[in-house]
C-alpha cells in the first residue's frame, strides 16, 4: 500500500497485490475481510490472498474506509496490481475513479530491497557431503542466516526473508542437509551434523559474524552452532524452538514421515497451524514432492532417530544463562508440536496469539518486528549498521 | 525447478534409472537408431524421440533395437525380467498390443501368482495411445481398460511432465509388470520437473483443483480438458474438484470418495469407448460405496462406442470436449434430492 503524493486533503491509498518472497508473481483473492464502505484501521486484516505456497492476510496500514474492492474472490492478480482502494469518506467516487485510471498509467512501485540489483535467487556451495542450497536476498548490511525446521526448506521464510532484507541486512536462507534442494545424504542425522553444514556454509561464504534466525529444529542447529562459534554469533532469534525443552509431538513426526496420500498429509500439516485452513493444496503438493525425492525417506528417518532424540537442552543451561548476545524466543500460543520451554530469565520470550507451530507464517508482521528488534539490539551495541 | 517437456521427463527418468541400476535395459523399435541401419545412433530415439541419446551413453547392449514385431519385444522383455533384468519395452502404439496379448495376459501377469511368489516380473511396457493425431482407427485407441481388467498388471497413465517422470521411475523400480501409457498429444506439453530423481507411488490420485460443487475425474489428456471445463464452470459460479487417478490399477478410490462426500456430484471424463471402461468402473465404485453422498446421477463423458474416425472433423467430434464436460456438470448441478 502506498499513499498518493501530495494528497493532503483526501488521502486515497492503493491496496496492491503484495509480493511475498521472490518467487511470487501473482496471488488469488480468497475473501475480503472488510466490506466495501466499511471502516478499516491500521493492522486490521483486509483481504486473504492465496499464492502457490500459502494463504496470508493483507493488513491495512492506514485508517480509512475500504471504498473499492477491485478483485473478487477467486480472481488472480499480478503482484503490484491494484486490488482495492482505501480513502476517507470525503473522497468522491470521481476522485477514486481518477485515481484508479491514473494508477494503471503510473509505473508500479517496486519494493526497495537492499541492493536488489545485485541479488541472486538461488545458489549453492559444494561440501564433501554434497550441495547445500541457499537463497540470498540483499547485498548490504550484516548477514542474517535463516535455518528452517524438520521437513521444511528455505521457502518457510517466504514472509520473513525479504522483509528482513529490506531493513538492510544481507540474508541467507539455507536448505539443511536432507532438505529442499540440498544433498539428501546424512551421515548420522544429528543436530551436530546439521550445525557442521551451517558452519561450512558460513565459512565458504566468508560471512564472518552472523545473526541466526531458526525455526523449530533449526533453532537447535543455531544453538549448537552458536555454542561452537561463540565469537561468530551476533544474536539468536528462535521461533517455536526445538532443543530448549520438551519433545516434539511424536504423533506428528511419525505421521509426517509416513504420510503419502494428500489427505494424510493434510491432516498432519494441519497440526502445524492454529488455523488449519492455512494448509493449502499447493502446500500439501510441495511437501509431497519433497518427500518423494530419492533419499528423503532415509534422511528423515535418520533425523527422527538422532536429531529429534538429541539430549535436551541441546546446549548446557549454564551456557545459555551466560550468553551475552541478544536471544529472543518466539512461539505460538496454540503450538501443538512443541510445548513452551522454561527458560533462563535473561531470555526474551514472546507468546503470539493466533499462531501454532509456525508463528513466522501465521503472524509474519509481528514475528518480523521481533526479529528486527533483536537484530537492532546488536547494531546499537556495535554501531556497525546504520 | 527446470521447465521441461513430457517427452524429456520420460527421457530423464529412463536415463536416471539406467545410471542407478545396470539391470535396466530398453527394448523396442528404433529405440537406438534403427537396427542394422547406417543412420546416426541416437538421432531418432523411438517414434516419439523418448529414448534419444540413451544408446550413446549406455550402448547397444542396454538399448536394444528390435524388428517390427511386438510379440518379440514383449516376449524378450518378459524373459529378461524373469532372469533378473529390469526391461523397459517400448511399443510404438498400444493398438498393436493384440499380437502379444497372450504373453501379457497369460504369462507376464500370472508369473508371480503361479510360481507362488517365487519370481518377480519387473517389466515395464511403455506405449503411446490416444486420438487427436488423425492417425486412424488402428493408431488412436485408449485400451487401458483391457489391462486394468487383468489382475497382476499395474496400469499407469500420466497427465503431466512431473507425473511422467515420477511414475516411470516408480514403474521401473516396481517388481511387478507395469503397463505405462503415454498420450500422443502430451509429449510436447511442458511443466516444472525436479532434476533429482523421485518416485510417485501408484494408487495415489492427484487433486489438481479444489471445488465444492462437483467432482470431475479424468485421465491423461482428459485431465487438461477437465481443467479447462473447470475454468469455464467457475465463470458460471460452479466450483469443480478435478482428480487425476494417475493409475487405474491400483485405483485410489479413497480420494475420489473423499471428494464425493463434499460435492455429491460426479462427472467422469474418459477418452476411451464407454462400455466396460475405466469410467464405468469408477462409476460403479462410487455407486456402490458412496450412494448416500450422491445428489445426482453419475455422468460419464466419453467417446462414443465407435472406432476412432479418420476424418479430422469426425475425430474432433469423437474426443470428449470441455464443452461436453461443462454441459454434464451443469446437468448434475440441476438435480436435487
Topology, pairings included?
The complex is a heterodimer of chains A (386) and B (337).
Chain A: E1 2-3, E2 12-16, E3 26-32, E4 39-40, E5 45-50, E6 55-59, E7 64-69, E8 76-78, E9 82-87, H1 93-105, E10 123-127, E11 130-137, E12 143-147, H2 161-165, E13 170-174, H3 191-204, E14 210-215, H4 217-228, E15 233-239, H5 250-258, H6 262-270, H7 281-292, H8 296-305, H9 317-322, E16 327-332, E17 348-352, H10 359-362, H11 364-382
Parallel strand pairs in A: 12-13, 12-14, 14-15, 15-16, 16-17
Antiparallel strand pairs in A: 1-2, 2-9, 3-5, 3-8, 4-7, 5-6, 7-9, 10-11, 11-13
Chain B: E1 3-5, H1 6-20, E2 24-28, H2 54-58, E3 63-65, H3 70-82, E4 86-93, H4 101-108, H5 111-114, E5 124-129, H6 144-148, E6 154-156, H7 161-173, E7 178-183, E8 190-192, E9 206-209, E10 214-218, H8 221-235, E11 240-244, E12 247-249, H9 253-263, E13 266-270, H10 278-289, E14 299-302, H11 312-318, H12 322-333
Parallel strand pairs in B: 2-3, 2-4, 4-5, 5-7, 6-7, 10-11, 10-13, 13-14
Antiparallel strand pairs in B: 1-8, 6-12, 9-11
Helix pairs in contact in B: 1-7, 3-4, 8-12, 9-10
Mean pLDDT figure of chain A: 87
Helix content of chain A: 25-40%
- CA radius of gyration of chain A is 22 Å
Gap between N and C termini of chain B, in Å? 47 Å
Strand order of the largest sheet of chain B: 3-2-4-5-7-6-12
CATH 2nd-level architecture of the largest domain in chain B: 3-Layer(aba) Sandwich
Distance between the first and last residues' Cα of chain A: 25 Å
Fold and architecture overview:
The complex is a heterodimer of chains A (386) and B (337). By secondary structure, chain A is of the alpha/beta class. Chain A is 29% helix and 23% strand. Chain A has 11 helices and 17 strands. Chain A has helices at residues 93-105, 161-165, 191-204, 217-228, 250-258, 262-270, 281-292, 296-305, 317-322, 359-362, 364-382; strands at residues 2-3, 12-16, 26-32, 39-40, 45-50, 55-59, 64-69, 76-78, 82-87, 123-127, 130-137, 143-147, 170-174, 210-215, 233-239, 327-332, 348-352. In chain A, the strands form 3 sheets. Chain A has an 8-stranded mixed sheet with strand order 10-11-13-12-14-15-16-17, sandwiched between helices. In chain A, strands 1-2-9-7-4 form a 5-stranded antiparallel sheet, covered by helices on one side. Chain A has a 4-stranded antiparallel sheet with strand order 6-5-3-8, with no helix packed on it. In chain A, α3 (191-204) packs across α4 (217-228) and α6 (262-270) crosses α7 (281-292). The longest helix of chain A has 19 residues, at 364-382. Chain A starts with a strand and ends with a helix. With 337 residues, chain B is of the alpha/beta class. Chain B folds into 2 domains: 3-192, 3-Layer(aba) Sandwich (Rossmann fold), CATH 3.40.50; 206-333, Rossmann fold (3-Layer(aba) Sandwich). Chain B has 12 helices and 14 strands. Chain B has helices spanning 6-20, 54-58, 70-82, 101-108, 111-114, 144-148, 161-173, 221-235, 253-263, 278-289, 312-318, 322-333, and strands at 3-5, 24-28, 63-65, 86-93, 124-129, 154-156, 178-183, 190-192, 206-209, 214-218, 240-244, 247-249, 266-270, 299-302. In chain B, strands 3-2-4-5-7-6-12 form a 7-stranded mixed sheet, with helices on both faces. Chain B has a 5-stranded mixed sheet with strand order 9-11-10-13-14, sandwiched between helices. Chain B has a two-stranded antiparallel sheet with strand order 1-8. In chain B, α3 (70-82) runs parallel beside α4 and α9 crosses α10. Chain B is globular, with a radius of gyration of 20 Å. The termini of chain B are far apart. The A-B interface holds A 74, 181, 184, 260-263, 281, 289, 292-294 and B 162, 166, 194, 196-201, 204-207, 210, 234, 252, 254-255, 258.
Amino acid at each position: 500500500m502506498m499513499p498518493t503524493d501530495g494528497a493532503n486533503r483526501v488521502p486515497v491509498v492503493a491496496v496492491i497485490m503484495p509480493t511475498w518472497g521472490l518467487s511470487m508473481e501473482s496471488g488469488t483473492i480468497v475473501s475480503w475481510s472488510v466490506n466495501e464502505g466499511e471502516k478499516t484501521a491500521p493492522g486490521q486484516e483486509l483481504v486473504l490472498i492465496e499464492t502457490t505456497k500459502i494463504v496470508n492476510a493483507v493488513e491495512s496500514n492506514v485508517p480509512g474506509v475500504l471504498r473499492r474492492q477491485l478483485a473478487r474472490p477467486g480472481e488472480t492478480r499480478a503482484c503490484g496490481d491494484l486490488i482495492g482502494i482505501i480513502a476517507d469518506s470525503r473522497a468522491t467516487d470521481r476522485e477514486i475513479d481518477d485515481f484508479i485510471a491514473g494508477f494503471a498509467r503510473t509505473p508500479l512501485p517496486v519494493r526497495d530491497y537492499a541492493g536488489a540489483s545485485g541479488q541472486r535467487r538461488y545458489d549453492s556451495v559444494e561440501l564433501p557431503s554434497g550441495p547445500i542450497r541457499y537463497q540470498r536476498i540483499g547485498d548490504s548490511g550484516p548477514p542474517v542466516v535463516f535455518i528452517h525446521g524438520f521437513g521444511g526448506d528455505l521457502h518457510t521464510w517466504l514472509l520473513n526473508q525479504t522483509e528482513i532484507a529490506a531493513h538492510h541486512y544481507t540474508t541467507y536462507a539455507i536448505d539443511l542437509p536432507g532438505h529442499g534442494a540440498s544433498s539428501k545424504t546424512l551421515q548420522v542425522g544429528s543436530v551436530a551434523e546439521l550445525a557442521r553444514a551451517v558452519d561450512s556454509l558460513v565459512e565458504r561464504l566468508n560471512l564472518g559474524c552472523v545473526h541466526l534466525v531458526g525455526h523449530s529444529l533449526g533453532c537447535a542447529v543455531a544453538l549448537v552452532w552458536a555454542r561452537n562459534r561463540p565469537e561468530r554469533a551476533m544474536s539468536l532469534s528462535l521461533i517455536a524452538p526445538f532443543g530448549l525443552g520438551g519433545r516434539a509431538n511424536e504423533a506428528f513426526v511419525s505421521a509426517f514421515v509416513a504420510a503419502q496420500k494428500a489427505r494424510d498429509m493434510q491432516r498432519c500439516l494441519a497440526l502445524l497451524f492454529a488455523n488449519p485452513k492455512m494448509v493449502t493444496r499447493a502446500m500439501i503438493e510441495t511437501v509431497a514432492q519433497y518427500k518423494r525425492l530419492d533419499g528423503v525417506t532415509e534422511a528423515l528417518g535418520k533425523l527422527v532417530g538422532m536429531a529429534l532424540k538429541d539430549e535436551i537442552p541441546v546446549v548446557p543451561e549454564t551456557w545459555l544463562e551466560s550468553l551475552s548476545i541478544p536471544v529472543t524466543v518466539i512461539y505460538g500460543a496454540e503450538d501443538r508440536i512443541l510445548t513452551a520451554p522454561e527458560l533462563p530469565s535473561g531470555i526474551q520470550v514472546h507468546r503470539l496469539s493466533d499462531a501454532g507451530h509456525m508463528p513466522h507464517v501465521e503472524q509474519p508482521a509481528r514475528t518480523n518486528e521481533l526479529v528486527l528488534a533483536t537484530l537492532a539490539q546488536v547494531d546499537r551495541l556495535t554501531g556497525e549498521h546504520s | 525447478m527446470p521447465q521441461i517437456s513430457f517427452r524429456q521427463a520420460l527421457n530423464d527418468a529412463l536415463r536416471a534409472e539406467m545410471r542407478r541400476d545396470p539391470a535396466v535395459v530398453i527394448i523396442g523399435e528404433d529405440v537406438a537408431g534403427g537396427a542394422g541401419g547406417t543412420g546416426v545412433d541416437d538421432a531418432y530415439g523411438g517414434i516419439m524421440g523418448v529414448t534419444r541419446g540413451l544408446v550413446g551413453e549406455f550402448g547397444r547392449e542396454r538399448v536394444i533395437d528390435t524388428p517390427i514385431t511386438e510379440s518379440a519385444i514383449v516376449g524378450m522383455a518378459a524373459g529378461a525380467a524373469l532372469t533378473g533384468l529390469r526391461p523397459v519395452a517400448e511399443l510404438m502404439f498400444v493398438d498393436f498390443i493384440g499380437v502379444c496379448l497372450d504373453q501379457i495376459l497369460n504369462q507376464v501377469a500370472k508369473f508371480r501368482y503361479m510360481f507362488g511368489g517365487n519370481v518377480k516380473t519387473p517389466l515395464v511396457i511403455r506405449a503411446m495411445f490416444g486420438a487427436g493425431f488423425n492417425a486412424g482407427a488402428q493408431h488412436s485407441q485408449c485400451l487401458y481398460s483391457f489391462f486394468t481388467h487383468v489382475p497382476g498388471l499395474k496400469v499407469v497413465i500420466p497427465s503431466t511432465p512431473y507425473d511422467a517422470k515420477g511414475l516411470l521411475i516408480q514403474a521401473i523400480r516396481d517388481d511387478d509388470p507395469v503397463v505405462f501409457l503415454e498420450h500422443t498429444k502430451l509429449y510436447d506439453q511442458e511443466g516444472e520437473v525436479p532434476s533429482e530423481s523421485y518416485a510417485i507411488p501408484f494408487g495415489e490420485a492427484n487433486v489438481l483443483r479444489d471445488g465444492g460443487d462437483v467432482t470431475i475425474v479424468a485421465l491423461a489428456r482428459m485431465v487438461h480438458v477437465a481443467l479447462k471445463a473447470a475454468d469455464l464452470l467457475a465463470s458460471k459460479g460452479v466450483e469443480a474438484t478435478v482428480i487425476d487417478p494417475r493409475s487405474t490399477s491400483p485405483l485410489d478410490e479413497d480420494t475420489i470418495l473423499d471428494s464425493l462426500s463434499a460435492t455429491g456430484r460426479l462427472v467422469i471424463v474418459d477418452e476411451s469407448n464407454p462400455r466396460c471402461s475405466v469410467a464405468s468402473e469408477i462409476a460403479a465404485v462410487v455407486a456402490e460405496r458412496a450412494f448416500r453422498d450422491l445428489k445426482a446421477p453419475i455422468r460419464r463423458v466419453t467417446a462414443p462406442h465407435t472406432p476412432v474416425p479418420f476424418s479430422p472433423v469426425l475425430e474432433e467430434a469423437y474426443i470428449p470436449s470441455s464443452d461436453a464436460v461443462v454441459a454434464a456438470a451443469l446437468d448434475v448441478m440441476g438435480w436435487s434430492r
